[in-house]
DNA sequence: ATTAAATACCTAAGAATTTTATGTATTTAC
DNA sequence: GTAAATACATAAAATTCTTAGGTATTTAAT
């Protein structure tokens, strides 16, 4: 399990990526999926996830569809067009950011420039 | 220039890495170094940096040494023993975290597991 | 010589995001 | 029938960062 501060700022990117792969997902499903994908190393808490989902919806990146499962109502999220392009941008940006960070963090080379 | 939310949570790791490479540095120097290393893509603001440096010092990871440069006083920071091991941990953890994120974010493969 | 830009430190209000804690309710497994 | 898992949600507090100042010295430009 990673220290929580690492995960900060990446949650949005993860959510957008998940939705761009899966088409639609509900909140709880996202938490399980990420836990499973990362062998429990990244754990998304619901207290962080739900407010974010609501914000992304308010911002026009996501839309929701309520589906009744027995007596319960599941809320599926999917990307709007705007959400789709936002997802691509975020993912590209993050991959690029990782290259930069790797350059800074890796070995002696990272800083042997002067 | 990356969106600021990406940089969140990575500042501490960057500072510790810089100090483990350079031995000692002063705050302003760190901002310039990172800007230079990343071609302006990562910009550390002083409003974020100084409070962090003070916190790391209070936590026993850094120690300071004041050096007079003309009429000005420069404050050099260096790692304590605790800071050194903390640096190694943080860096290793982050490199590992990047692998995990890459796995999630990269292409179709990232999620084609079920 | 004066002025602007760069160097070098700092803090504090507000914004944004996350943690922690809690709540409700249904469904599944033991 | 009870505990665990599923599934949603919010709200107070903590953390971290941005924005926006502030002070002062030194260097570069006009």
Task: Give the SSE map.
The structure is a homodimer of 114-residue chains.
Chain A: H1 4-7, H2 11-22, E1 24-26, H3 27-37, H4 46-58, E2 62-69, E3 72-79, H5 81-105
The structure holds a DNA duplex (30 and 30 nucleotides).
What do the pLDDT scores of chain A average to? 91
Low-confidence stretches of chain A: 109-114
Extended strand count of chain A: 3
How do the strands of the widest beta sheet of chain A line up side by side? Answer: 1-3-2
Radius of gyration of chain A: 17 Å
Shape type of chain A: globular
- Largest sheet composition of chain A: 3 strands, antiparallel
- What is the string of helix and strand elements of chain A? HHEHHEEH
Could you tell me how far the N terminus lies from the C terminus of chain A, measured between alpha carbons in angstroms? 36 Å
Tell me what portion of residues of chain A adopts beta-strand conformation: 15-25%
Oligomer: homodimer
């Amino acid at each position: 399990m990673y220290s929580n501060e690492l995960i900060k700022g990446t949650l949005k990117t993860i959510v957008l990526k998940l939705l761009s792969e899966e088409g639609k997902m509900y909140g709880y499903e996202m938490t399980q999926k990420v836990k499973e994908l990362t062998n429990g190393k990244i754990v998304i808490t619901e207290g962080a996830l739900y407010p974010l989902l609501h914000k992304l919806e308010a911002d026009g990146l996501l839309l929701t569809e309520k589906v009744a499962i027995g007596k319960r109502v599941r809320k599926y999220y999917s990307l709007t067009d705007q959400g789709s392009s936002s997802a691509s941008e975020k993912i590209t940006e993050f991959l690029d950011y990782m290259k930069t960070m790797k350059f800074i963090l890796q070995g002696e080379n990272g800083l042997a420039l002067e």
